Structures are given as structure tokens and as C-alpha cells.
Amino acid sequence: MNRIRTFSWMTVMLCLAVTACKKKSEPAQEQAAAPAAQAEPAAAPAEPATPAEPATPAEPATPDKQAVEAAPEAETEAVEARLAFVEGTVESIEDAGPQPLAEGAPIPGGTIVAVGEDGQAEIDLPDGSVVDLDELTELLVAEAFVEDGVRKVEMEVLAGAAHFTVAPAAKEGSYFRVKTDAGVTEVVGTVFAVEVGAEKPTTDVVVLEGKVEVTAGAAKETVEATPEAPKAVQIAAEAPVAAVDPAVVADAVARWQDWTDRLADALILRHQIDVTKPELDAVEVLAPARHPMWRVQVDLRRARIAHRIAVLAQAAAAEDLARAADAKARFELAKAAWRAQAAAERQEAILAYRQAHRAAWAARAEARAQRHEALKEARQAQRLAHRARVEARIAANAAVRVEVAGQA
């Protein structure tokens, strides 16, 4: 059994927006688990959601900085990715038009996952990695599987922002690639984010810890960084790899911390988790033992919720929380106290970013439709390849069961 630190994972965030997004790091993990209870996505609000402010220096360390051990080997292996978390509108792009996706839905190769305004989505991959999708994002999952211990993951961010928490590869020959129009980012072992500019074909790659390899045309560069000294580069097709202002990193980290806070808040409210005495094992979708295939990803969500609860509980007075009527009232009281202490200017910056991103998204509707059309043939081939792998896995498992039965 490999032991992995939860937030030594590599994280990539890819965005198609007016300004560049950044990458953030996350824990590495090995395996995946059973689908979460399905819930139809709700329509997203028209106005930008009020962002959660980034943690201040006085707050507890984020999960990314905590050492979290990977769970024991799962008894069974996930065959394909799954949609683990949905907030707002999340759809797959099909020939007949967008089709709603619910939590627990499989994400086979060749799927384009699209997240609507004010939406969020989280995808669990069979290798233990996690993909977080921001609002107004389209991600093509070209392939995502593990075969004989070799990981083969290739995705393309068509629009918006995606954050990747990448598990370490178990065997030689494994790869984890994230494409954009500007180039390719491949995991060497790190935490990072990627953001694609909406008005120009560039991608900002921000490395927070570890190492990535970026390629744009003939240009190739390895970017290595530490938490104390993050680095960022910008890539564009047929152009040299260029340095980026380090201030971009801070902005991206703040936006992604806001995303993580909102995910945790949604799960706390959805499952009525008490911020004064959280019992995560009592929540079916957050109990690792109930999801052996997705144990690593469930542990990541638990770590995010635990961090958020620690921040909220620290913001509110214990006596005020004790007087609150129920778990929901305690959460809302703690969040209000936290919000009053958070940096207003950072909140305003996040809202301004979203508004600009939404304007760029609306302006590129026709371009996205054209891209969907151009990808039809490739996506069909990816779907057929995925189906063949699943059928081969089913046949192999059946053969093993027959052999075991014969030996009994």
C-alpha cells in the first residue's frame, strides 16, 4: 500500500477568462470509491455568488498543508471516473443538446462536462485524483483510467477554470496531461493551477509546490517551486515560455480557496453538519468505509470540510454558538462572524473577476459551439475506446470469478 500526503497532490486550475487563473496544490492519493447519492443539479442563480474570503494568517492551516495519509488499498477498482459533487447546473454536451448530470453519474472517456453560472462540480478519477470545476467551465475528459497499475489520464480545458489534485503515478509509463489551446501541462509531481485567457490564446501555469512540465509548440520548460517560493509561467502556441508576475499566484490561490470554501459550505448545509460537533462518519457520502473505491477522494472532502469548520468555529464566540437553535443556525452564525472578519477588498476582487469572466463567456458562445462540432469525431473514438476497456475489464473479472469458483 502506498502512503501519500493528502495535499502533496498536484493541482491544476485551467481557466478561460479575461484574466489569467492559477494553480493550486492538493493531496496525492491512490484510489477511488462508490458513487455518491444522486441529486439532480439545481438551476444556477443569475447574479454572482458572494465569494468566500480567503483565509487570514490567523486561521488554521489549510488542508493542503496538512499531512493526511492515504487509506488502505480498496478491495475493488473503479473502472471510470464519476461526478462526485454537484452544485448548480452541471451538464454533458451531447449532439442532441446539453444533458443534466447528477451526482454519482459516470464520466466515460469522450465526455464534455459543462458547469453553468454559479455552479460547481467535482470529478473523482479512478487513480485517486480529483478534478474541481468552477462555474462557466467546459472540460473534455478524453481518457481517465488505470490499467495494470499504469495511469492514463488526458483532459482538455475548453473553457473556464479547472483545478486538479493529482495522485502520484504508481508505475512507469503513467501520464496525466491537461491540454489547452495554448499548450500542454504534464504532471511530474506537484501542486499547480492552470488558467487560460479568454481574449487571447495563452495559459498561465502557477506552480505552488513541486514540478510540472509545460509545452507550447516547440517550446518546453520544467517549472519547479516550493510553497515559500511559488513560480508562474505563461505559455502560448509557437511562442517562448514567459515569466509571469508572482502576484498572479496570490489572486489565483484566493479564488480557489473561495471555491473550496463554497464546496465545504454546501456540504455542511446539505448534510446538516454541526460546526460545534461535526460527525462526518454519520454522513453516508463522507464515510470512507462505505466507499472503498473512492476512499482517497472522500478523505479529501472530509479534510476540506474539517478545515472550513475549524475556520468558522474560530470566528464565532462559543457562547453565541451554544445559544443557536440548531446546526443550520450555528453554521449561519459562524459564517456571518467569519465574513465580518474577512478581507473585503479580496471579496470585491473575486466578484470583479467573475463578472469579467461571465462577459467573456457570453461573447464566446458561438466559438464554443464550433469547437463542440469540431470535436465530435475525436469524442466518438474516445467513447468507443472507453467502452472497449470497460467490456474487457468486465470479461476479465468474470473469468477470475469462474476460476475462483472452480477452485472452491
Strand content: 25-35%
Low-confidence stretches: 1-12, 14-49, 53-61, 64-75
What is the string of SSEs from the N terminus onward? EEEEEEEEEEEEEEEEEEEHHHHHHH
Give the N-terminus to C-terminus distance in angstroms.
Answer: 28 Å
Mean pLDDT across the residues is 81
Determine the fraction of residues in helical runs and give it as a percent range.
25-40%
- CATH C-level name of the largest domain: Mainly Beta
Strand elements, count: 19
Based on Cα principal axes, name the global outline.
Answer: globular
Q: How many separate domains?
A: 2
Query: In CATH terms, what is the architecture of the largest domain?
Result: Sandwich
What's the CATH topology name of the largest domain? Jelly Rolls
- Tally of helical segments: 7
The biggest beta sheet reads:
19 strands, mixed
Mind telling me the C-alpha Rg?
21 Å
Structural class: alpha+beta
Description:
By secondary structure, this protein is α+β, with helices and mostly antiparallel strands. The chain has 2 domains: about 5-45 and about 60-245, Sandwich (Jelly Rolls), CATH 2.60.120.1440; about 260-345, no CATH class. It has helices at about 245-270, 295-315, 320-325, 325-340, 345-365, 365-375, 375-405; strands at about 15, 15, 25, 80-85, 90-95, 95-100, 105, 110-115, 120-125, 130-135, 135-145, 150-160, 160-165, 175-180, 185-195, 200-215, 220-225, 230-235, 240-245. The longest helix has about 30 residues, at about 375-405.
